[in-house]
Every structure is written in structure tokens, then in C-alpha cells.
């Protein structure tokens, strides 16, 4: 039986995700800034962009924390099972 390991992201994947996030945010802000129309409409879109950005960061953190918690619980369960198996002697009679 093998101990589960936490999946690791490569630095290239992290860089690609950060660049994609930054590029999407910058293009949205530039698009709102140069959009023709009433300033109130642009302000509404800017607030929507701000809220969507903060919500996506919060969601990413919650998902990461949930995955880390599941990993820790799996390791604790595995450690408990290993201790029970190490302490078990199949040749001793069961106690009542």
C-alpha cells in the first residue's frame, strides 16, 4: 500500500495561470476604460469586474483548502491504519 501524495503544479503551469489571469483582468479594465458610453455604465462594469475578480480568488482559495484538508485526512487515516496493523499480533487470542 502506498501513501497518497499531494499533487504538485509545475512552475510553468503556475506561470501560465498567472499570466492568463493578469491578461484577462488587464484587457477587461482597458475595455471598460475605452468603452464609449455613460460613466455610470462603465463604473457599474468596473465594480462587476472587481467583484468577479475577488470572488474568483476566494473560490480558488476555498477549493485549495478543501483539497488540502482531504489530503491531510487521508494521511491521518492511513497513519491510524498503519498503527493498527503494526500493533496487531495475529497469534494472540482475542480478549473478551
Question: Would you kindly provide a brief summary of this structure?
Answer:
This protein is an all-alpha fold.
Mean pLDDT: 85
Q: How are helices and strands ordered from N to C?
A: HH
The secondary structure category is: mainly alpha
Strand content: under 5%
Q: How big is the Rg?
A: 25 Å
N/C terminus separation: 31 Å
Q: Characterize the main sheet.
A: none
Q: Classify the oligomer.
A: single chain
Q: Count every beta strand, where a strand is a DSSP E run of 2 or more residues.
A: 0
Helix content: over 70%
Low-confidence region ranges: none
Number of helices in the DSSP assignment: 2
Question: What overall form do the CA principal axes indicate?
Answer: rod-shaped
Structure notes:
This protein is mainly alpha-helical and 96 residues long. The chain contains two helices and no strands. Helix 1 runs antiparallel to helix 2 (39-87). 0% of the residues are buried.
